[in-house]
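ugh ok fine here u go
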Amino acid sequence: MQKIYHLVLAATIGAAAVLSSCNGNNPESKSLETKIIGKWKSVTQFGEETLTNQRLIGTYEAGGKGYLSWRKFNKKPLTYTISDDYVIIKDETSVEYKQKVLSIDDNSMSSTVGDGVISAEFNFKKVTVDYSRDILGMWERVAKSGDETYGDSIARMKYKEDGTYIYSLRDEQGNWQPLGDPISEWYVDGDWIFTRWQNQGVDTIEYEGWDIDYIRGNEMKWSALREREDGSHYTTTITWARVGENK
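structure:
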């Protein structure tokens, strides 16, 4: 699992930066440097569509800096340097990864990453929205489709600026009661939201990722690709309505 993570890390952060070779031999290097700037989300890896819980969000900035969001990593800082057709990526531990890009345009890119033993191809799409502020406030679940995952019943979520949330259920009298879980954390990177929580009296920390399809005024819709225990995949959605103040 650790080796797979290293490959995924390199694929996400290195990605198209490899094409921005700064040795002056590539006549299109300036164009490619422009194309890499921005945010990219994994859509396939190892030849299969990426499960939403396993999304990687790589953001590339000018000057060899970038960051990665993946499950417990919320915008983890990374740096990169360019050498010919490869990018050398370093995380905070100074571990190096090499990445090569097969193609890139304004909306998508394809790349391979390998360590001499394992090689895999990853595809990404460019993300041009940022819902990290739009989601702040109270939302109530009003509709769902697909198999249930965690807590897909009618509930309310209040997303707070400090990266925590309040999860509430309605009691028999119709009043909303916060659960008061010891851990309730969230972050949004682009159009992907990731939550971590620990229920009272339980040692296990759960997590879940969703794609935010849109936030339009007082309505928000999520979707996710999940995997059943038998290995089959399914898509589920949740529709939310904003409650009360925006924040």
